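Morning!

As promised:
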Amino acid sequence: MKPSLPAFGLSLYVAASFLLVYLFPQSVLVFLLFEASLFLLYYVPASPVAKRYLGAVVLVVLMPTLGVINGYYLEIAIQIGIYVVLALGLNIVVGFVGLLNLGFVAFYAIGAYLWAIFGSTQANQFIPGALFPLSGYWFFGFLLLSVAVGALTGVLLGLPVLRVRGDYLAVVTLGFAEVVRALVNNLDKPINITNGPRGIAPIVKPPLFFEPVLSFFGLQIAEAELYPLYFYFLVLLLVLVAIGATRRLEHSRVGRAWKAIREDEVAAAAMGIPVVRMKLLGFAVGASFASAVGVVFAAKQVFINPESFTFMESIGVLAMVILGGMGSVPGAILGAAGVTILNLQLLKGLSLWLNSLRQSGAELVIPWLGSYSLAQLPVQFEPAKYERMVFGLILIAMMIFRPQGLIPPQKDQRK
Amino acid sequence: MDGIVLGFMYALIALGYTMVYGVLEFINFAHSEIFVLGAFVGVEILLRLEETGQLAMFHPVFVLLLIIFAGMVVSGLAAMGLERVAYRPLQGAPRLVPLISAIGASFFLQDGFRLIESLWRNTFYLSYPTLDVLDETVSLTANLVIPVRSILVVVLALIMLGVLFFFVNRTRIGMAIRAVAQDPETAALMGVPVRGVIALTFLVGGAMGGLAGVLFGLHYSLVNPYSGFVPGIKAFTAAVLGGIGNIPGAMLGGMVLGLLEAFAASYLSIITDGAFGAEYKDVFAFVALIAILILRPRGLLGEKVREGQA
């Protein structure tokens, strides 16, 4: 492997940004520089092998190291990972098959509640014998089970719903998500299945089965620090599996059939593509992604309630897919990372900054217009509270100026 | 009675969805915010009058007419502006594009109202001042007592629906709207100013939404920037139920949905022996929507499905 100049430059950039974060662990801006390195990695013209190695170093070595220094960064990385999987799942449904699903969060909720109910004392309420919570080892079983359950619910929803088309489908999926949320919210009676709006806690975490290995190497990490790292790698694994599965599907017979349906359903049917079966498959695959990542979410949060699964979440994931570019895998990843960073870091950071300005009581002097005391800045003016406004602007602006997204999907070149 | 009030409310909002769908073939997701805007205009005027002590000076009927008129005008104009900014640049784009833009507009407006009200009044949960007239009741028989506010909703809704029906079916402009809904290209060839008609449709649909908003505020008295979402979804359900793009269908759908919901709210717990209470009325409404769409994919009064129509 011959090291190329861009790859070398990129390595320098990664090293420099890493060093900066290491030196200034509290600065949001510096961390953004570090996060940007992954996107540069995608664009820089270097050999795929070099890119792969560099990406692996960033994700497996540097990111966890920073996470140990400042746990908040790791939390953000985990959130991004979760949303990347969700966005990839929705990307299959919306981007590949071309079916607008406005209730995607329902499948996420189903996965999360699947583990929450059986991984806590909740299931004792309706299954006799104090069998629950199940031990943490069941977590992995449920991760697999959730894929099946997600796919099954996807098919069950799809069977009746796919008879309707276009906009009708969007509304029916939205209705479905509202039904799921209403059920979760109200199924604390007559039989207490979901514990209603109070939510379920505590939920069992997966076991630290690798602890003996760590102590063999003389590493003693406290559980409170180990779990974020553990979830980070778990989510990373899930992201990689999701990317791999999506890539494989995209370039398979199935993926081409999906795109054919998206472009022209009647023509696709005329070419002998089993339209309904392919649509159902798309629904099922997307739903299984969401459901699996829901299980991880439940285990990570320890506590879940219906508030986490509102329409807002569905739209958030949709915004990610659209921002990145419908039908594009790197686009979905970029969109998920971008929106999550926007929400968790930029808006919150801006709010904090405004707050500190307000408290400092400094005077803002505008030439010729007089001065304005920053202490008078209204308290309600907090960017973090207005994420919908920002989302809305992003969606409208994207649709008007760049409807194909930031990284539009590449056309299949093979003839 | 609750069911009928709810039904008329849904019918009014559903009209906005259905008219826009008729001419542009897309779901105007931001219509629920136009509805909320109407409610906000109403509450702002009332609060203003109350603060300056003028509320008692005017005759209540005048006040009611004033806020209804203001709500309709502001909402109608806002809907027109929305069309100009967020939808017109997207003409001819694939079908998902304007829909997503509409969702964006809806979110933007929700937080926009919240921001404005927060800066203005330091809170964004507003309640309508009490108007004594509304709290009076009329008793038809010994045990059938109807509050005036319900009568107000029903009467105003009926009048507006009648006016709209006349406007769309009997006037030249109404004919132009129907022509654009059927086939915009041919309509343009026949000399119909399509863009103007589209803007007009937004104006009329928005005004209906604004009226519904003011009535909603007068009836339930509490408004916040997010209170449009659920009625909006329900009204869209109603529009689909009746066959979208179809004006009598929207009215019928609204009534059916309102009655179904009120029915579910009061009888569901009796039927299921207390197992499922009134909190399942939304589930019931959506299940009804899904069921109807499966049985009649084009709604109750919808046209036949043409194959190959995406």
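Chain B touches chain A through 54 residues (CB under 8 Å).

Hope this helps with the figure draft.
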